[in-house]
Write the structure tokens for this entry.
Amino acid sequence: MPKLISGAEIVFKALEDQKVEYIFGYPGGAVLPIYDELKNHKSIKHILARHEQGAGHAAEGYARSSGKPGVLLVTSGPGATNAVTALTDAYMDSVPLVCISGQVPTHLIGTDAFQECDTTGITRPCTKHNWLVKDVNDLSRVLHLAFEVATTGRPGPVLVDIPKDIQFKKGKYKFTKNTLKKKLNGRAAHKLSNKELDKFIDLIKKSSKPIFYTGGGVINSGPDASKYLRELVSLTGFPITSTLQGLGAYPGDDPQFLGMLGMHGTFEANNAMHDCDLMINIGARFDDRITGKVDEFSPGSKKIHVDIDPSSIGKNIKVDLAIISDVSTLLKSLIKRFKEKNKNFSNSNKQKTSNWWEQIDKWREKKSLNFINSDKIIKPQHAVQRLYELTKGQDTFITTEVGQHQMWAAQHYKFNKPNRWMTSGGLGTMGYGLPAAIGVQIANPGKLVVDIAGEASVLMTMQEMSTAVQYKLPIKIFILNNEYMGMVRQWQELLHEKNYSESYTAALPDFVKLAESYGCVGIRAKTPDELDKKIKEMIDVQRPVIFDCVVDKSENCFPMIPSGKPHNQMILGPEEEEEISDEGKVLV
Amino acid sequence: MSKSKSAYSIPGKIGKLERHIIVIWVDNEAGVLARVVGLFSGRGYNIESLAVAEVDKKKHISRITIVTEGTPQVIEQINLQLKKLVPVHKVADFKRGEKDILFRELALFKMLANSAKQEKIKKICKKFNPIVLDKTKKSFVIQVTALRAEIDKLALDLKRLGLISTSRTGAVAMTKGAKIFN
């Protein structure tokens, strides 16, 4: 007969067995028994956020930079509803999170009790799965299953709702591994057949205008996947482009890398996607920011799609060869098979793809990421470039908020390693970057962590600076301050006849004083000539910093594919702006 | 879904709508029906009819039968998305009109009718395995099992004969012969 322990203790036993080191959370009435138990488990450290959304994004940042699941602990009612944005964000970007929420005691469920809400109902569409535990003897099984669901297949968030009386009740604890025998996202893991691999290789060999299009799946598959990807790209000599989430899987400064693709991707990447005869999608999902107009998306190409999630395949774009697999597993077998049969591929292939590379070089000559710099006012792109130049010497982790600054960061900051770039892509959550930086810093002590932010986004979760100060996390909040919701302003300029409805923020706080009031360091840069000095000052400070970088208010983010247009119709810069069709307006 | 900007348009833009019957085996646990139905509503898929009950008491397995309409790629998505749900064991998908599948719906009709009329009604219902469940001098309740379209037509015909209340189930499905879904 195993010893009976309380539900709260079962929670910690399960976390210990899952080797959890950090939980991000916020206490409240319905989770007090769990918080009471915290003191007895020294291997688990709790990070107190200032808002449950912040705790959730911090857990995401932790997960994405460490490859381990993030754990979130919140109370019932508002605690759970505040976590919904973070859960949805994690769901869209495939981040493994385990959220434990308190619930009112079982006998009060359904009575509209104080701080009661239908947590499993509310979070059902934004988690991979969730559970309401009504029997303490189910608790350990459910918790371990929760970790398994969150981390297997396409990763994502899960939630375990534990009523307060269950936290008190005594029950049995049991650690059983691999309870989820059944499936990987609806399909049992299958061995890759040589037939599939040979078809893949055959398409590679036949192609004269190929392109690799890689995404967050490469990052989620672990560091090995990036290693294999680099090997395959070098083996084939093919050009490669990446989605926003995939940045870092392949070195950003490598000559075979064409930069990011999509709405604000480079001219060469988008044109190559449009004109290619073979598209090899590895771990990306043909998102609408990538495809643009689907009817005219890469009309002449054969398409290969590698994804771990069967429902990603054929959802938006029909493909010629679909392979349901973990990226790392697939690439490893593919490279092995490829090498066995094609000893001299790269030499024979060079000739075949030489015209293609010439064409790509012509596109590159457009230098689509160029901007007109100024010596009077800081251009936001210039600020990101300087930040990159001054931090590339060290292992730097970048998070972002959402908007223009996010795109400039993606365009001008070059990543060479996976798990160094944390941004909210799918959901596009303003306020993501600051709390995410907290989680990243916790997972990577001693490393430089910078949140490239906009002043509007960062104000949404600014309260988490207090968390950074409490835990002495020297995160750097690098705000490109243009006093506008920049991307909103840009769309209004291009699509709504410059009616800047509510996109200007009057009465912004003084970010330097705000930093001081939080007990961190405030730095302001107003002119291009003081920028480098100030950035160096920021890097050298061993405390959290809010950096107020005052930038050009009217700068727009280019290049851009206007909504409703195909890849080969990009706007390169302000001089090229054209009227966007009414149809296009609807597509934003 | 089919009109969404991010949906893939096959040649001819929106593909032809097909009616499919989707059978789902699930763990009969709290909220499981909400997960399945929520997936349909959340992703904008249709549910034309729904039938659900536990079919294995020991293993607590329920069988859900959903009739839906969509383009071939929407139907494919429905299948793939359903299979991702944790409590779902397996999913079977049948196109309406497939030969080796049986479909049935059940309906109860309450009629205001005297005995002469009642005989007439029974005659109309004859083809559809009528069973009289309740009978008074003025009214009676009759049960029929048939295909959806047949019940539709029957309900229309009975309206003239004093139909005052209709209750219908969703369709249930089963394969012909000895083979079962896998």
